[in-house]
Amino acid sequence: MNFASIQVPADRPPVSSPRALTEADAIDIWIARWLRARRVDLCRRYQCDPRRLYEIWEGQRFPAAREKAWALFQEQYPALLDRVDPGFHRRVPRGRHPDQLEMFC
Is residue 92 domain-resident? Predict the structure, then answer.
């Protein structure tokens, strides 16, 4: 199979090398999260791995971006303030909690 003959669909942007995210990108990513933009759409828009988004949402990268984004969000979308959780992302553990095993003994 010749991979050079494969055409990229028109609705997808061509794959290019990932770029470093900036603080302005992080602010936009926070606002997009609160507007319920899909993660896959954000990855395509910013040409980044999903782990970079979670680094921003967990406060590991650009920790001050959340406060700046929240201030912008309050100005631009005041009607949505009661429908948004402005907090950081919280990981949900996938493993079993050791105390749960006691229930079945």
Answer: no
